[in-house]
């Protein structure tokens, strides 16, 4: 037994050593790393570096260490294209981004243009959070893979849950005024009408992205509407300031959110969010799995950020699986290997659907609770699981007609 143990240790050390000796595989994160939305980009950057350390300790990608490069786009599509070119000029083959579908749209177009003009020098876009459904429907691209449920999938799961909450009769919608927010609003109205036609939508507001400093006027309108619940796809600073204004105003209506666990929410809201702030996400704050619990502890200790982006870990695990399986780190080879790939995650089996490159996965409804073993942001508050929506119930059809390279 001791010989077997020592052999395993030696094997692991050899894998790690080989990975360190090979040429690094660079993954560039193009996201807001400064400014009002840095609270969304910075934790993703730290999570990626943290996940890459684990990948590298296990042999990297086909023996190549993974190196994460952070590039600040200031939430600008134009600046994102500048950073994309900078990344490609520096030999980066894999681009990842998640904050802002307007940015993702520009990156998809930029990478498609580059790949069309430079056969043999293709780059791949790994989308971890830009959830506009068009990217895996009418605008689907062979060079784009989404590792988060799209906006429609999340709303499908959320409205399934809301359909069972009979006390909710009036809903108010408030969203950021760009493609993602518009999609959240449209699908909320459509799906609620199908699943709970008795629910009345009593308000439907849009506000500028990352511009509003005081949401009190919006909260006042929500209060006056008599809404039993609020649905929002807000993220980053717009999420934190929205729910803080609601708490300060004394609004009792629960919030059903896409990004209720955005950085700063637990600290700003505290007990005012308990049993009132809900989130639809691929994970939750109970950390029932011991390995995930340890990652939460280690990441917070290392970088002062919570383990929020399970999808980023899943993304790197899929990349490693593709590279090791194909004995290659070529982006085209990796892309073909990712199509239809399955991955056993802590939440169950995930599938990267080949038809549109949209991950298929279970989703969870969670609500802020106190006395949590693994509190967010050093507090006692985190999101406790209240419902699981199975992968097949989250899944929606696609209109994608993908063109693949020969």
Give the amount of beta strand, in percent. 15-25%
β-strand number:
15
- SSE order, as H and E? HEHEHEHEEHEHEHEHEHEHHHEEEEEH
Shape: globular
Q: What's the pLDDT, averaged over the residues?
A: 95
Given as residue ranges, the uncertain stretches (5+ residues, pLDDT < 50) are none
Q: How widely separated are the two ends? A: 50 Å
Order of strands across the biggest sheet? 7-6-8-9-10-14-15
Helical proportion, percent range: 40-55%
**Alpha plus pi helix count:** 13
Radius of gyration: 21 Å
Which structural class should the secondary elements be placed in?
alpha/beta
Largest sheet properties: 7 strands, mixed
For the structure shown, list the relevant keywords.
406 residues, seven-stranded mixed beta sheet, 15 strands
Short description:
This protein is α/β, with parallel strands linked by helices. The protein has helices at 2-21, 38-57, 77-89, 101-117, 151-163, 179-195, 216-225, 237-249, 265-269, 290-303, 310-326, 331-338, 391-394; strands spanning 25-31, 66-72, 94-97, 124-127, 144-146, 170-176, 200-207, 229-232, 255-257, 277-281, 342-345, 348-353, 358-360, 363-369, 382-389.
């Amino acid at each position: 037994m001791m010989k077997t143990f020592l052999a395993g240790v030696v094997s692991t050390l050899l894998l790690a050593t080989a990975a360190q000796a090979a040429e690094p595989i660079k993954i560039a994160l193009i996201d807001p790393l400064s400014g009002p939305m840095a609270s969304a980009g910075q934790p993703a950057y730290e999570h990626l570096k943290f996940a890459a350390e684990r990948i590298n300790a296990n042999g990297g990608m086909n023996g190549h260490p993974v190196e994460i490069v952070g590039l600040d786009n200031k939430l600008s599509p134009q600046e994102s294209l500048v950073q994309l070119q900078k990344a490609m000029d520096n030999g980066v083959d894999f681009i990842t981004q998640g904050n802002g579908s307007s940015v993702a749209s520009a990156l998809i177009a930029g990478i498609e243009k580059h790949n069309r003009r430079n056969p043999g020098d293709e780059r791949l876009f790994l989308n971890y959070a830009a959830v506009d459904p068009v990217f895996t429907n009418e605008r689907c691209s062979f060079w784009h893979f989404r590792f988060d449920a799209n906006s429609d999938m999340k709303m499908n799961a959320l409205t399934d849950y809301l359909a069972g909450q009979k006390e909710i009769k009036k809903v108010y919608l408030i969203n950021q005024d760009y493609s993602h927010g518009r999609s959240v609003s449209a699908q909320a109205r459509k799906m609620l009408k199908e699943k709970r036609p008795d629910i009345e939508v009593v308000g439907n507001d849009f506000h500028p992205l990352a511009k509003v400093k005081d949401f009190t006027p919006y909260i006042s309108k929500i209060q006056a509407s008599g809404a039993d619940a609020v649905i929002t796809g807000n993220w980053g600073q717009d999420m934190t300031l929205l729910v803080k204004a609601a708490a300060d105003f004394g609004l009792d209506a629960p919030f059903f959110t896409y990004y209720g666990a955005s950085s700063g929410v637990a600290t700003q809201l505290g007990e005012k969010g308990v049993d009132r702030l809900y989130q639809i996400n691929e994970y939750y704050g109970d950390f029932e799995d011991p390995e995930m619990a340890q990652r939460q502890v280690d990441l917070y200790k290392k970088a002062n950020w919570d383990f929020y982006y399970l999808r980023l870990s899943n993304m790197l695990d899929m990349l490693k699986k593709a590279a090791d399986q194909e004995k290659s780190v070529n982006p085209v080879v990796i892309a073909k290997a990712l199509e239809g790939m399955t991955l056993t995650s802590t939440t169950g089996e995930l599938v990267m659907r080949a038809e549109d490159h949209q991950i298929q996965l279970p989703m969870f409804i969670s609500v802020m609770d106190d006395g949590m073993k693994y509190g967010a942001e050093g507090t006692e508050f985190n999101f406790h699981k209240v419902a699981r929506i199975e992968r097949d119930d989250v899944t929606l059809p696609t209109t994608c007609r993908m063109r693949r390279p020969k």
